[in-house]
Amino acid sequence: MRALVLMCSLALGCLAQTPHPCTSPPLLTGALTVSTQNEKLWAYAKYVYDALGQRIRLQELGTYQNKSFTYDALLLYREAVMYEIDDVHRKCKKRPLTTDFEPMAIPKNASLLGQAILGSSSGPGQGLLVNTWVGDLPNNSGKYMTTVTEFGCIPVSTVYHTDQFGWVVTSLFNNVIGISDPQQLVPPDFCQTEMEAGDGEEPASFLSLFLNKHFLGSCGTKENLEKDIDVESQQHRVYKEVTELSQQQCVCFHLCSSKCVCHRKSMRGLIVLFVCLTAGCLAQRPQPCRSPPLLTGGLVVFTQSEKVTAYAKYTYDALGKRIRLQEIVSYENKTLQIDVLVLFREGVLYKINQRNRSCSKKHLSAEFQPLEVPKDASLQGQSILGSSSGPGQGLLVNTWQGELDMRRRGKAKYMSTVTEFGCIPISTLFHTDKTGWVLTSFFNNVLGIEDPQQFIPPPYCEEAQLDEDGEGPADFYSLFY
After folding, report:
1. Is 433 strand, coil or helix?
2. Does residue 196 sit in helix, strand or coil?
3. Torsion (CA) 438, 442, 447, 448 in degrees, nearest 10
4. What is the per-residue pLDDT for 248?
5. Cβ 394 vs Cβ 30: under 8 Å
6. Is there a domain that residue 349 lies in?
7. Could you read off the pLDDT of 339-377 as tens digits, one per residue?
8. For the chain, how many structural domains are there in total?
9. Residue 257 confidence (pLDDT) above 60
10. Is residue 401 in a domain?
11. How large is the C-alpha radius of gyration of the chain?
């Protein structure tokens, strides 16, 4: 369950009113990404969802076992029919669909894990209130965790486990209530009327569309790729079609970036989920920014190797160049409590043990690095977490990537997502050869410092001897490793 800890911790917060299980709007249009823990499958899709007519349309592209694929499926549950559509060659297969339609909803027997704010509640457009629920999959096949918006029950993300792929993360974004093009839910005129025999497991729910063995087998295997087109041409068509998909999405937003797919080869695995959260269109090109100088909130840290998972309360003062972290850390299946006060201006790091009233003092030679998007960062894109269809349902975010010179640690790659309004941190992926990918997610951020005493060392720290060895953390993120 360690892979779940990240999203579990995002939901830790105080509840003003206990949320209840809910059902998502019956008509939704948007985009999503699917990423698996074992890196076998990654997919980006545009979707049209009609719970009233029990219809779903998916235009999908991705990689499966290092092979690129595209897939276009129309599922008509009421008619018990599934169409596999190839617009390029004007081909269509009609297959039986015998499973029942499962709407996007929080099951009534789900357990509320908690409520949290992605971003900040300190200003308009800076935060998104979400609820996280957990439960058991049917037939005791595993567990799931789903996050939806408090207002509107708009899906944000779902995590669940399968034996084939391990943990599977689905993230939904740029959701809009309603269907702009009902023709997407009508079979093209070139679709055959004869039904082909079913051959394999059928999708039982919205999410299982991406893990269906028949879907992956029909578009990801070498035999099928070679049947109509060679691998190189297929990959070229994938890039061409994702650009076309992005351009279609830009009808409403005027300007679009399709870098999500262009960067997927160099940043695979854990990072790909957050790269593709940025597949959106830009109304106005964002600029690099700096987070507010005084921040208080919570965060979780998760490493690609799963050796380290940490939950922390943080207090951040860029004016005084001070950081306080009170952490609960799981390291190699051992739980630790760590309390660290970092005073960059004084060049000192305190490791505090309040239970034993002891304190160690370490020399700090590194310079303070504020929470910000560097000026040389490259914009990956802009998207809405949740929906833009109603107040309190969505959060506009920008995602940036770049490289940092970590001196002795060498080059480091990063990818940061911040709110468009306020530059409040949402998440950061940070990579070095030593640590691999380290994911930090922020939540319940508040502008200002509630307790300035957090930056004053306890009286018993005065007796601590200064340890001159070591360089100490170079920035906010390196405090965790």
Report:
1. coil
2. coil
3. -60
4. 32
5. no
6. yes
7. 999 999 999 999 999 888 899 998 887 788 899 999 999
8. 2
9. no
10. no
11. 24
Domain containing 322 — which CATH number? Answer: 2.50.20.10
Task: Report the Cα–Cα distance between both ends of the chain, in Å, rounded.
Answer: 21
Same domain, 255 and 365: no
User: Looking up tokens 């169409």, which residue turns up?
Assistant: 83
**Six token digits for residue 350:** 């305190």
Q: Residues with Cβ < 8 Å from 4, sequence gap 6 or more?
A: 143, 145, 159, 167
Q: What is the pTM of this model?
A: 0.74
The more confident residue out of 13 and 396 is 396
Q: Please report whether residue 93 resides in a domain.
A: yes
Range of weakest confidence among 40-49, 279-288, 326-335, 463-472: 279-288
Q: Quick one: pLDDT at residue 207? A: 56
Q: pLDDT tens-digit profile of 61-100?
A: 888 778 888 889 999 999 999 999 988 888 898 988 888 8
Domain boundary among 276, 310, 330: 276
Task: Count the alpha carbons within 13 Å of 70 in the hemisphere toward its beta carbon.
Answer: 24
Same domain, 301 and 249: no
Considering only 113-127, 304-318, 379-393, which range has the smallest mean pLDDT? 304-318
Run of H or E residues at 384? strand 378-386
Q: Which amino acid is at 269?
A: G
Query: 308 and 426, same structural domain?
Result: yes
Classify 8 in phi/psi space as left (phi over 0), alpha (psi -120 to 50) or beta: alpha
Q: Give the integer Cα–Cα distance in Å for 271 and 399.
A: 12
299 versus 206: the higher-pLDDT residue is 299
The torsion region of residue 152 among left (phi > 0), alpha (psi -120 to 50) and beta comes to left
Q: If you ran DSSP here, which 8-state letter would residue 376 be given?
A: T
Residue-range definition of the domain harbouring residue 66: 2-276
Residue 408 and residue 436: Cα distance in Å, rounded?
16
Are 95 and 102 a contacting pair, CB within 8 Å? no
Rounded to 5°, angle at Cα 173 from 170 and 177? 120
Q: Using CA atoms, how far apart are residues 247 and 256, in angstroms rounded to an integer?
A: 7
| Residue 281 forms part of a structural domain | no
The residue count of the chain comes to 481
- Is the CB of residue 171 less than 8 Å from the CB of residue 271? no
Q: Is it the case that residue 7 has pLDDT exceeding 70?
A: no
User: Residue 90 is which amino acid?
Assistant: R
Are 68 and 37 members of one domain?
yes
Closest to 137 (Cα-Cα) out of 120, 162, 166: 162
pLDDT in tens, 428-459: 888 877 777 788 889 999 999 989 999 999 99
Nearest Cα residue to 65 out of 41, 43, 44, 45: 41
Distance of CA 27 to the CA centre of its chain: 23
